[in-house]
Request: fold
Amino acid sequence: MNPKFGPGHFYALLSLGLLLVLVGLGSAHYMESHGHIVTGMNNHVVWGLPHVFAIFMIVAASGVLNVASIGSVFGQPVYKPRAPLSGLLCLAMLAGGLMVLMLDLGRPERLIVAATHYNPRSVFAWNVLLYSGMFAIVALYLWTMFERSMNRHSKAAGVAALIWRFVLTTGTGLIFGFLVARQAYASALLAPLFIVLSFAWGLAVFLIVQWAMYAWNQQQLDPAIQRRMARLLGLFVAAAFYLVVVYHLTNLYFARQAAFEAFILRDGGVYPLLLWGGYAAAGTLLPLLLLFHPRLGGPRATLLAAALVVAGALAWLYVFIIGGQAFPLEIFPGHVASSSFGDGAIAHYVPRWPEWLLGLGGIGAAFVLTTIGVRVLDFMPQDDFATLKADAKGAA
Amino acid sequence: MTRDQDSGAKQALSGRRAFLGLAAAGLGGVLIAPGIHLMEVAQAAAPGAAPVGASAKVRWGLLIDTTRCASGCSDCVSACNTENGLATPTRPTDAQWIRKVEIKSIQTGRTQSLPVMCQHCAEPPCVDVCPTGASFKRADGIVLVDRHSCIGCRYCVMACPYQARSFVHEALAEQKPEVPRGKGCVEGCTLCVHRIDGGGQPACVEACAKAGHHAMLFGDLNDADSEIARRVREVASKQLRPDLMLDPGVRYQGLA
Reply:
């Protein structure tokens, strides 16, 4: 461990993370004992803010492993030393996301039922297998990287992890893609869209964590490596934006989807605001400017861009998940409908504090796992270890 | 450590072991007993029912005549609430198994009033998506939720095109013994399966007839001689969202 980042710092960070986890668990307990009545969810918006956090973390977990894939599978030397950190972040974020997802269940204590009663036709059930498999494969992958005698199997494990996470993110996209009932979903495009979004979100998270590790160790990332990773983030952000645009263009072209698009893009209040202001402007265009502008693109601009990509991701997921449910189901095409159960009406949803705290608890869990992992094993990118060792010798 | 101290420590250890053993047995009993009790309750409910399960030869269905359904009348909704122990809904978090929907054609301005409940699809999306198989379709076409294996993920609510499912957001009181419900689980119209299995018909259908509207007809769609099969053969009726090809067991007559 680097002497500049002492045990005091470690325990302080760990305590902060554990506090977040405890608050999240307390919030989940409160939700479980009172029921979802204490959340902002209702019978029209049944998946609320916890799903936004959970799906962000699960999708980003898949994408963060991209760094390892580029190194181990595609043999890029700059990325190879970053593969262990990438694997650790994948496990940590997957665990955090699943924690939120599980604790938001109506009956979280029946989790064992999900393992013992399995409906093979359910995309959700497929995902239970995909998530468990992901843990196993990434753990194996990390082992092949850390255990010298297993190094020769690292590429094979990397290829397995690469394939698995493509399937996993396809599965996450299809949770929505297979929903025939709702206009926001029911699209095969959602599978590739989620994969490309995962690349951008995962790399953004990786860059933030990498920056923090370097800052705490008072190290500077090689500017060439920093520029390279910044350009890659820009490429992923642009590719994801392209698919989001295609998704909306397709909907705009179909007359039957026009009302839904008018709602999401123009009339829906908080949803168009978050989509244009949060995702398009702050989460896409501004990061692209920061990453590609010739006078910008430095470490701080890259960090800011990565943070904005994460904020934009949460904004996009909020619009996608909550906005998709808020728009009423079209049970009677060609008719205006009304009822006591929200037919024909835009559903109202405002997240309440237990949802925020549960989501933050999941992020806390990912933070704790990352902090412990970084402390216990060598996750600092190895190409920079040479400099660190030289520094230590100089100090001695 | 002296021999006395050693033997004292051993006794203490053996005492702790005995205590732990007892505690484990007690805890096991506490955990298992409710399960055994539930099994007894489940078996106790069986005597009156037929020994065989639902028949695949039957397809229970409803035909709703929208020309007879009166705007402003909600007797079917009240009957459902009373029969199944549902409180009168006042908030969007309250469960609604059946609701009256008022519709107005955008092109012609024609208005209609009709009840919407679980459509008991032959290809139910809620059953497909349920991770644990808690959402299931009986052999006779009735779509139900198994209250014991529903984990409350709400994926079925997302998947239902008819908004027919409700999530129980808080603890319930005054439940009906024949209609088990529970906080944290999803539920919906059971077609009054407890009545059907006893040879009766859904409460909503009965209430509609009692009100003199006779807008709802219940029966076996597979039985060519049944009233419902004859009616759907003779008059034009349609299913909601037929484009989705889910083949609902509920059909609507007079729906433009």
Chain B touches chain A through 53 residues (CB under 8 Å). The first helix of chain B runs from residue 3 to 44. Helices of chain B lie at 3-44, 75-84, 125-129, 155-159, 193-196, 203-210, 227-234.
